[in-house]
C-alpha cells in the first residue's frame, strides 16, 4: 500500500525538471519512466520510492471539493494542475522524498499540497504568473515581468483567482 499526496499547482508542471533539481541538489535518486507511464523515483539500490502520475488540469468548478472536501477546496481556486505523488509504504525514506517533491512543485509553481494544505507563498518562478499562454501579461510589480516582493497581496498575482 502507498501513501498519497496531491500537489495542486498553478501551471502545468515539468515533473522531470523538479526531480532533476532534487537530484542536482544532492538527493540520491534515480529518475525512471515518464509519459505515458508514471515518473518513478528510485533510491541508490534501485528500490521504487515514489511514483508520480502525469499532471491533470482541473478546471471544473467544485471538482476539488468533491475529491478533497469542501474545507480544503475553499482555499483553492480552479483551474489548477493536479499531480498525484505516491510514496511506497514499505521504505522509510519514501514519504520524505514524496513530500519534498510535492513541496518543490508548490514552491516553484505556487499552489497547495493535500493533505496538510497549508497556504502557499507566492510562487518562486515568474512562469507561474503567466496564465493564458503566450503573450499574456505578467502580474506583480517587479521589473521585466517578474513578480514583485513576496508580500504582494498574499499570492493574489494568480490571474484566475487566489490559491491559498
Describe the structure concisely for a colleague.
The protein is an alpha+beta fold.
Can you walk through the features of this model?
It is a single chain. By secondary structure, the protein is α+β, with helices and mostly antiparallel strands. It is built from four helices and seven strands. It has helices spanning 15-24, 63-68, 70-73, 94-109; strands spanning 2-9, 30-33, 39-42, 48-52, 56-58, 80-88, 111-114. Strands 1, 2, 3, 4, 5, 6 and 7 form a seven-stranded antiparallel beta sheet that branches. Strand 3 and strand 4 (48-52) form a beta hairpin. It is globular and about 45 Å long. 34% of the residues are buried. Residues 131-164 have low confidence and may be disordered.
List keywords for this structure.
4 helices, seven-stranded antiparallel β-sheet, alpha+beta, 164 residues
**Contiguous runs where pLDDT drops below 50 for at least 5 residues:** 131-164
Report the major sheet: 7 strands, antiparallel
* Amount of beta strand: 15-25%
Taking the alpha carbons of the first and last residues, their distance comes to: 30 Å
Question: Topology of this structure?
Answer:
Layout: E1 2-9, H1 15-24, E2 30-33, E3 39-42, E4 48-52, E5 56-58, H2 63-68, H3 70-73, E6 80-88, H4 94-109, E7 111-114
Antiparallel strand pairs: 1-6, 1-7, 2-3, 3-4, 4-6, 5-6
